[in-house]
Write a structure and sequence with these properties.
Alpha-Beta Plaits, eight-stranded mixed sheet, 9 helices, about 40% helix
């Protein structure tokens, strides 16, 4: 009887330890879906979540991606299509991810239904020694390649094209003050990048894009629009890709155009892709 009781105690203790280990592993696996590996390691070592990501102000090039006329897409696999696009973008962002120092090709900030926002240079350092502008444009071009591949797989009856806006300025990291403490960025770079991407919605600027597209025999096209600061920071090989729009152009001046949230801008630069 004594031996049986002793055995049952050992078995119960082993079961509880095993259950605790399984629960810890499950929690760890689920938490890894919410934070980066370096954050998990620091939390395991006793650090607070709020100390695992940069919070000081920095500089970055923000990339705002959006699908043109996405509301007109009619397909039974539309949600699956967008998930495939964003998963491809995340893989591009995570290329070269390292813990110390903290770096990767880009940082995925958020998905916005039919859009995707990322940053190069903050909070993660870039992975190569090229200029920040070169890294941001190279990343944008890789994203367009991935997007076109997903569009091809989607096999929709109508062409699907996208637009990106790139802008360089101040950004700062922050954790939400209450509830789920997700990490976020704010700053002028995000606002400006969104405004550059939205330039395609200005009818007179869209007509300029269409005119240039006709000269290249393009009927439908993806658009990469970059801020003057980004363009001037590019290497010559990348600069050659872009076409310049003078903000003082009569076609813009007659419509009282000014670059919102970037009053110092004198030029807009764009690149059209198939």
């Amino acid at each position: 009887m004594v031996s049986w009781i002793f055995f049952e105690k050992i078995r119960a203790r082993f079961y509880l330890k095993s259950t605790d280990a399984d629960a810890r592993q499950h929690l760890y696996n689920q938490l890894s879906k919410l934070v980066y590996p370096h954050q998990l390691e620091r939390i395991k070592l006793g650090d607070e979540l709020e100390n695992t990501m940069p919070l000081k102000e920095g500089k970055a090039i923000v990339n705002v991606f959006d699908v043109q006329r996405s509301g007109e897409i009619r397909h039974e696999r539309t949600q699956e299509f967008f998930m495939g696009v964003f998963q491809s973008f995340l893989q591009i962002c995570m290329k070269g991810y390292e813990h110390n120092p903290l770096r990767s090709r880009a940082f995925r900030l958020k998905e916005t239904g039919d859009g995707f926002i990322s940053s190069v240079g903050y909070p993660f350092l870039p992975v190569d020694s090229h200029s920040l502008a070169d890294s941001a444009v190279a990343t944008a071009l890789q994203m367009f390649e991935a997007f076109n591949l997903e569009v091809k797989r989607f096999n929709c009856s109508r062409p699907i094209k996208a637009a990106m806006g790139l802008a360089y300025n101040a950004v700062q990291g922050t954790f939400q003050s209450g509830g789920i403490r997700s990490y976020d960025l704010f700053g002028d770079a995000l606002i400006q990048a969104a405004k550059y991407e939205e330039l395609r919605k200005q009818p007179y600027i869209w007509n300029m894009f269409k005119e240039h597209a006709r000269s290249r025999n393009l009927e439908h096209f993806n658009i990469l629009i970059v801020q003057e600061v980004v363009y001037n920071s590019l290497s010559p090989a990348y600069r050659e890709m872009f076409t310049e729009i003078d903000i003082s152009d009569e076609r813009l001046a007659s419509n009282n155009f000014h670059m919102m949230y970037d009053n110092d801008a004198k030029f807009i630069y764009f690149h059209l892709l198939e």
